[in-house]
Amino acid sequence: MSGGSYYVPATSRWPVLCSLALGVMMIGLGIKLVYDTGLHLAFIGVIGIVAVMWLWFRDVVIESQGGLYDAQMDRSFRWGMGWFVFSEVMFFAAFFGALFYVRMFAIPWLGGEGSKGVAALLWPDFVAHWPLINPPDSSISGPQQVFSPWQLPLVNTLILITSSITLTIAHEALKEGYRKACRNWLTGTVLLGVCFIIIQGVEYYEAYAHYGITLEAGIFGATFFILTGFHGVHVIVGTLILATILVRIQKGHFAHENHFGFEASCWYWHFVDVVWVGLFIFVYVL
Amino acid sequence: MALKLPPQHNLQHSSTITADSQVHHGHPAQPRGILRWLLTTNHKEIGSLYLIFSLTMFFIGGIFALVVRAELFQPGLQLVNPEFFNQMTTMHGLIMVFAAVMPAFTGLANWMIPLQIGAPDMALPRLNNFSFWLLPVAFTLLLSTLLMPGGGPNFGWTFYAPLSTTYAPPSTTFFILAIHIAGISSILGAINIIATILNMRAPGMRLMDMPLFVWTWLITAFLLIAVMPVLAGVITMMLMDINFGTNFFNAAGGGDPVLFQHLFWFFGHPEVYIMILPAFGIVSAIIPTFARKPLFGYASMVYATASIALLSFLVWAHHMFVVGLPLVAELFFMYSTMLIAVPTGVKVFNWVTTLFRGSISFESPMLFSLAFVVLFTIGGFSGLMLAIAPADFQYHDTYFVVAHFHYVLVPGAVFAIMAGVYYWLPKWTGHYPNERLAQWHFWFSIVGVNLTFFPMHFAGLAGMPRRIPDYALQFADFNFISSIGAFFFGASQLLFVLVVVLCVRGGKKAPAKAWEGAEDLEWTVPSPAPLHTFETPPNFHRSSH
């Protein structure tokens, strides 16, 4: 708690513009999905969001560099970022929950397990199995085969875990004042993130081209793509955040004892990493 | 590096004021007109925006309800076709939950939490503005679905798959996107509230010194951050099932429509506590004030609120007793649900005990709070009846359920919001609300509420299904009374608007401490509260809770 030095910005035009841009994006997306037109509107919205966020964060950076933020403000950012990451955890929890529910309950019940045999009557010939290669109804074709976890997924796991380590080294270097080392290790982290995204892109291509794993391929395809897809989006966002941090390091931002922007990015990246470990175990291995 | 500050910023962080001074130095001229409201980062202005938005939506959602009640006035189909009837029940629920009740509590939180903990503003003021301005975007989009080809959402506010996926109108995609925006607003608002409460309290104010409204909002914000992302997840799966051919809620592909219900109610049950915990906080502020006694059992109130919040994660499937759950799940969710009666009972006991031997006066905030205690308890008891799984097989999807949740939401949440508005209006406007009109509003409301919702218990127990535009003749009398009551209640809410407008324009001047028995920090700043308060944190002296 501080003695009245808390910084309250007078007014800001960015929040209201950001909600407007988000609205334009959502309307464009809706028109695209329902009426198959209007994608340009969605793009205008996305560009608007990116532009406004750029300007908004720019204000924050300028204020921070200008020394307007006291220790209490720093704690507000910490609480804010921490609870934001928690909300992301719960977002992924919904998809993991769906996966566990389907594997532990829905599919065994369709196969006849349990006392509530009604689901089993729908497709009497269906035999429960996972990964679900043969969905209950013949109108839906499952994947032909699924990925071995010990090839590309393992490589990606090692890449992400390594990236968390390199990021930690970069952070320690910043704290100790070795800015050049920090920059180099951070560059390595960003490159590892890019590698992950490329490999994931290759895997998606393989999934559609050779494995028959598609969005339409029964519940396996659905859970596979929603979990890895949202994770992939988070890796892309995380990589962009770290790239921004890298630029700021180059510009001489971040004091060695006070650099929450850097730390927040680390929190986000480690979170993305932990989600991947969960994905690797429950989507690929088990 | 060379620094350039954005032009609109000023170094107001160095301004200091004495406790009773209203003169502020270092604040720039506010933008005028519409820009003032679009660009504001002030918690009081944003709080007012939330409250005005909520009141507007309360009337829009109310009109939808009156369409429903008008159609149900007598058996047979008279006014609207069944498709439109379904859209009205759906939109009434969605608007009241997401656009009326939740923003009203967030508005009260914005206004009162910084004042009650002695903070200069919310922790993240720009984010606060963003959270609010997402709401008009979200609900303009949602309401516009009514005008789209095929009509608006027609599957009930719970939007169960496959009604909301396979058999849904094309506008469902827009409905999903609108709920996404509203969800972002809720999450960011909740993050801001938690950061404010945990980080911005006046020096010396421990967590266990906070007013209960702050405590209940801290716990509510936690619930919001925990479950709104799950809602985002489940509507994303809907979006994929509708537009991208996935099979999350389609058993033919190995998915399960029941999965939708589990995910929805994992969000939905904490959500109903999100709509009642801040009400507990408001009532816990008002009853001690007008009983002129400290709240009985402050610590037990805090622990009870926390217990209710934790239990809310373990009871969701009591909404799904008839869906075909395994017996062990029926039993677990039945007993865990009944367990919630314990902390809730602690709360009701504490309110009643606070009144015991109090020096009670019956101003309008107190009237609404007392009605809250009695009528919310009725809603709680009908909830206990619904928690009994074998009994629920009979009650499920009948008007008994409608009666139950309207008792906890209208004389529960909505009455508490109105009590809070009457209680804090002197602080906001500097004038007391017109007590005579406010009391008329109270008595009209309480008659209207009970006329509307009490007969629904009987109609439901006799077997009248909910969400159906026609009904068998034997339910005619109950529905006749309910519809009369609904229009009476709806019309009497115009009185509320009148009181608020009159209070903003003038009235009896209120001193800083507007109510004799009021104790919290908000009563130490002048009435009306100046735009900026507590820029220098106040010295907090522990009072006896």
TrEMBL record, chain A:
Cross-referenced Gene3D superfamilies: 1.10.287.70, Cytochrome c oxidase, subunit III, four-helix bundle
Family the entry assigns: Belongs to the cytochrome c oxidase subunit 3 family.
Protein topology in the membrane: Multi-pass membrane protein
Protein name (database record): cytochrome-c oxidase
Transmembrane segments: 12-31, 38-57, 77-102, 153-173, 185-205, 217-247, 267-285
The organism of origin for this protein: Halomonas llamarensis
Residue ranges annotated for the Heme-copper oxidase subunit III family profile domain, each copy included: 2-286
Domain of life (superkingdom): Bacteria
Location(s) in or outside the cell: Cell membrane; Membrane
Record key words, sorted: Membrane, Translocase, Transmembrane, Transmembrane helix
TrEMBL record, chain B:
Alphabetical list of CDD domains matching this protein: Cyt_c_Oxidase_I (cd01663)
Family: Belongs to the heme-copper respiratory oxidase family.
UniProt-listed PROSITE patterns: COX1, COX1_CUB
Short name of one Pfam family: COX1
Protein name: Cytochrome c oxidase subunit 1
Species whose genome carries this gene: Halomonas llamarensis
Subcellular location: Cell membrane; Membrane
Gene, per the UniProt record: ctaD
Known EC number: 7.1.1.9
Residue intervals passing through the bilayer: 49-70, 90-111, 132-152, 172-200, 212-240, 272-291, 298-317, 323-346, 367-389, 401-425, 437-460, 480-504
Annotated pathway: Energy metabolism; oxidative phosphorylation
Keywords for the protein's UniProt record, in alphabetical order: Cell membrane, Copper, Electron transport, Heme, Iron, Membrane, Metal-binding, Respiratory chain, Translocase, Transmembrane, Transmembrane helix, Transport
Chief place of localization: membrane
Membrane topology annotation: Multi-pass membrane protein
Catalytic activity: 4 Fe(II)-[cytochrome c] + O2 + 8 H(+)(in) = 4 Fe(III)-[cytochrome c] + 2 H2O + 4 H(+)(out)
